[in-house]
Amino acid sequence: MARERNRQPAAPHPLTRIAPAQRALTVRQILEISGRVLDFAVIAGEAGLDNEVATSELNRPGLGLAGFLEVFSHDRIQIIGNTELSYLNSLQPGERRERLERICHFPIPCLVITSAYEIPPELLEVAGAHEIPVLKTSLHTSRFMSRMVAMLEQEFSPSMTAHGGLMDVFGMGVLLTGESGVGKSECALELIHRGHRLIADDVVILRRHSKTTIIGRSSPVTKYHMEVRGLGIINVEALFGAGAISDEKIVDLIIRLETWEPDKEYERLGIEEQACTIFDVDVPEYVIPVEPGRNLSVLIEVAAMNQRLKNTGFNPARSLDEQLIRKMQTEQAKPRKPKETSE
């Protein structure tokens, strides 16, 4: 089964032209985002709550407290657990203050105490004098660090805004893209009516969750709302119920809707898979031409189910191609009967 080669080169995908946004968080913003979840309490250094945190990595300053400051990651949140606090309590007050002065001389964003041991007064005094916030949490060190890193990675992961709609179709996160007016919202509305869930309409915020995962969610301003030409703004949750919406979803598939062009050759076989690259992550992509009479919602449902099948390692088009090749090879290998000669 030969694939036609006379195809028009694909136009650059609009998602590839959007630059990721960079971000830094202040200690005050971290308290607002996760202060209740991480059980934070500010016990000193309130003047430094606007200090910025620009990395999701954490640091335990044990070696720094011991005097080794040649390699000290001062730009990270510093975690003081049982080990560090036990060491500080073992020092004389004068030496303890001296060690803390050397540490707090660096521009540290904040200190987080995860230990239940008694906190030396010198720690609070020195940190307050250098405007370094001291936060106290009741969580154990390992549990706190895992939760803190997860929160910071989510906040610091590269993100961008895409024009389109994001749906949960049969458990697959389907991102609908295309030019304005091509029918993305109407198609999403039909999918909602067929029992699928809306994540975002018109404005989709995409962020890289890992090296292989892109997560999409709605803007807080337009959450659960859709704009449908002729109807205006509708609230999907109010009309269809809580089961018709979701907060975020992994983007498993991109479907680009475009107006049908009679002279353009569209995919007919599906042997070679297409992909769109977002933040160095390749996401499978289908291009579906829009024409009166085509049931786009059914096509998108089939595309989602077909991609789930491909994710298991089975490609129907390739399987059929291999069967045809084997059949042709078998026919060619059969011995030919000699032609009968007439007397």
Q: In whole angstroms, how far apart are the ends?
A: 43 Å
**How many discrete domains?**
2
Strand order across the largest sheet:
14-11-10-8-9-15-17-16
CATH class of the largest domain: Alpha Beta
Instruction: Report the sheet-strand fraction.
Output: 25-35%
Sketch the topology as an H/E string, one letter per element. Answer: EHEEEHEHHEHEHEEHEEEEHEEEEHH
| Overall 3D form | elongated
CATH fold naming of the largest domain: Rossmann fold
Main sheet: strands, sense, barrel: 8 strands, mixed
Structure commentary:
It is a single chain. The protein has 343 residues and is α/β, with parallel strands linked by helices. It folds into two domains: 25-155, HprK N-terminal domain-like (Udp-n-acetylmuramoylalanyl-d-glutamate--2,6- Diaminopimelate Ligase, Chain: A, domain 1), CATH 3.40.1390; 158-320, P-loop containing nucleotide triphosphate hydrolases (Rossmann fold, 3-Layer(aba) Sandwich), CATH 3.40.50.300. It has ten helices and 17 strands. The chain has helices at residues 27-34, 62-66, 82-89, 93-104, 121-129, 141-156, 184-193, 236-240, 296-311, 316-333; strands spanning 25-26, 40-44, 52-53, 58-59, 77-80, 111-113, 134-137, 159-169, 172-178, 197-210, 213-218, 225-228, 232-235, 248-250, 253-259, 275-278, 281-290. The strands form four sheets. An eight-stranded mixed beta sheet has the order 14-11-10-8-9-15-17-16. Strands 2-7-6-5-4 form a five-stranded mixed beta sheet. Strands 1-3 form a two-stranded antiparallel sheet. Helix 4 (93-104) packs parallel to helix 5 and helix 7 (184-193) crosses helix 9. The chain starts with 24 loop residues before the first strand and ends in a 10-residue tail after the last helix. Residues 1-12 and 16-20 have low confidence and may be disordered.
